[in-house]
UniProtKB/TrEMBL annotation:
Belongs to the methyltransferase superfamily. HEN1 family. SUPFAM superfamilies: S-adenosyl-L-methionine-dependent methyltransferases. This is Small RNA 2'-O-methyltransferase. Its EC number is 2.1.1.386. The keyword Methyltransferase applies. Gene3D superfamilies: Vaccinia Virus protein VP39. The keyword Lipoprotein does not apply. One of its GO terms (biological process) is RNA methylation. GO terms for molecular function: metal ion binding; RNA binding; small RNA 2'-O-methyltransferase activity. Its cofactor is Mg(2+). InterPro entries: Hen1, SAM-dependent_MTases_sf. It catalyses: small RNA 3'-end nucleotide + S-adenosyl-L-methionine = small RNA 3'-end 2'-O-methylnucleotide + S-adenosyl-L-homocysteine + H(+). Keywords: Magnesium, Metal-binding, Methyltransferase, RNA-binding, RNA-mediated gene silencing, S-adenosyl-L-methionine, Transferase.
Amino acid sequence: MKTGSHLNLLNYEVSITENNKLIEFVVKMFQKHNLFLIFSVDCMMDTNLQKDDLTGTIKFIPPLYKQRYQFIKDLVIKYKPKKVADLGCADCTLLWMLKFCKCIEVLAGLDIRENVMKEKMHRLSPLPADYLQPSERSLTVTLHHGSVAHKDPCMLGFDLVTCIELIEHLEAAELEKFPEVVFGFMAPAMVVISTPNSEFNPLLPGVTLFRHSDHKFEWDRAQFQSWAVAAATSYDYTVEFTGLGTSPPGTEDVGFCTQIGVFVRKYPKNGETVNSEKHTEHAYKTVFKAVYPSLKDEKYLQNAVVSEVLFGADIIKRRLLGNFKSEWKDHRDGLETKFKFQPFKYFMRRSKNLPLAETEKLAADRSTEPFIDGNTVYIPLAKIFSIPKVNQLCGTFEKLSKLIAGKVALSNDGSAVIVTIEYENEEQEN
Ligand code: SAM
């Protein structure tokens, strides 16, 4: 084709991370094909903003809602709160993300729309794997149906309360009560509030008044900050402002797309602090509660210890029999067939050249090594306690004895785990 020829349509899908690379690419294509090209191009900006200069659409990568969840997750990783409540939790996605944070022991969600909360709440239930391998930490997840305009004692004692894109959905009367309920009554160590920054709106295509039809208001930075500072001052909190979603170069003066206030309670508060309103009536309805299996629960700890003990005992038995068998092979030429698979004690005596009395003395010394007597392997509890996982789970020898009592076969005096040797299998193996 000659210069100036028109090619109807060429669709190139290219991934370009810098504008200069885009220009380079266009120039090269012109040189190569020597023709007119029609491009549809998305520029992916490293600032996490995607702006199509041709159409004016703005997209955030990752999407802004994910960035907001990640912001909370990062705070959780940094401050390690044990009890976290998400107000206006909607479909519980943030709660679901937070359940994987090992520091959290109590998670609670609150929303005024019960159906939305229930849609995906099954994600908050323990998985089969949680039962197979219970976690060290305890975790309880609860969902409540109710309004942030009402106080309920179930929201007391939290370390972190998050309100992500919530306040702009509140009616004026609810918004008025919000500071008293959240900062005054719940009074967590930290509160995070995010809300749209209306100064960013002109950059968002299609946004005329508000970003969402259910928004009752949208504040600019000055409005949000003066409301937040007033609330913080009234309830003895500090507040710092940040945000997510940067604007394109040249429009930085509009601030972040999402504005965020991080409030930190100034005064210390322990669990025993008397709250005059602690005895407030319940206003919320609990719609979901999941208690995760945890090793802090004696039932799950016992299961875990018993299975580790049986597993460990089996390994010790096999190791012992392996050693025994190799010794057996060494000696079998000189022995009569009648010894085969029966006389372990006798064999020990023979192989170690010990008189029978000595063998029994060795057997009686149960605090030392495992030994075989007849068709039984004795594994002293001291040996079992030295298995790292068992030791870690039990902490003390007494706890080990207590947890396995009645669950694992023990010698008459309770000093050793006993495991029976299956002769027939042994014979088949030979
Ligand atoms: N926080 C979630 C997120 O970031 O994905 C959901 C935000 S959604 C935009 C706002 C949520 O606040 C909705 O699920 C709505 O039902 C809830 N909400 C509105 N008014 C409320 C109130 N008075 N009390 C509790 N939740 C409320």
